[in-house]
Amino acid sequence: MPQSYVTIRGGPPALALPLGLAVSAVAFECRTATINFLRGSGWGRPELVAWIVGRYRPVTLRPERGADNDRPAPSSRADWSGLPAVIAEARRETLRALRTALTPAAELDFAVAGIEGGHVVRVVDTFGAEGWAPVDRPRIRLADRVVSLVAAHRLTCPDAFEAAWEGFDGLLEEVEVDELWTATA
């Protein structure tokens, strides 16, 4: 998504979403991408790359080219043997964030950490609605990427968040069974 800055009610600058894209649509797609990630079973490199390109990246903002973005991409010969552990850690952190976000009056430390880490930013759409969106930067841990989706959804739709995640217990059980199955395979 292209970047442009506007000031919302005297606060710090917020990124403007592309013309016609509503903050509520970004929040809904963040939820969809999170569910897709949590339901991913036995993922390897191709499945993770497909999720990043197909589900994660379309709902994120990408910073303009700068020092952090000019570094070369990781070599295709990188060691991917640790990928199952990275995915398992991302699932655990995402589930922890979801549990916290669904707890009434809970401290949203994961969302604050996402904002402070630059993984979640304020946005405004062309209709004037304010919200939050995840940021796709190079070298963000997978767990931070997925948790930023939860944070953006929770911060944008605090009143509708709980209803949107109705049935979370079933998803949680599905993920836990999958993790047990993977651990014994």
Present the secondary structure layout.
Layout: E1 5-7, E2 13-16, H1 23-39, H2 45-56, H3 83-101, H4 109-116, E3 120-124, E4 130-134, H5 142-156, H6 161-164, H7 168-184
Helix pairs in contact: 1-5, 3-5, 4-5
What's the quick description here?
This protein has one domain. The protein is 50% helix and 9% strand. Helix 3 runs parallel beside helix 5.
Low-confidence residue ranges: 1-8
Tell me the total number of β-strands. Answer: 4
- Total separate domains: 1
Helical content band: 40-55%
Strand order of the largest sheet: 1-2-3-4
In words, what does this structure look like?
This protein is α+β, with helices and mostly antiparallel strands and 185 residues long. The chain has one domain (5-64, 80-184). Helix content is 50%, strand content 9%. Strands 1-2-3-4 form a four-stranded mixed β-sheet. A hairpin with a 5-residue loop joins strand 3 and strand 4. Helix 3 (83-101) runs parallel beside helix 5. The longest helix is centred in the middle third of the chain and has 19 residues, at 83-101.
Q: What attributes characterize this protein structure?
A:
disordered N terminus, 185 residues, 50% helix, 4-stranded mixed sheet, alpha+beta, globular
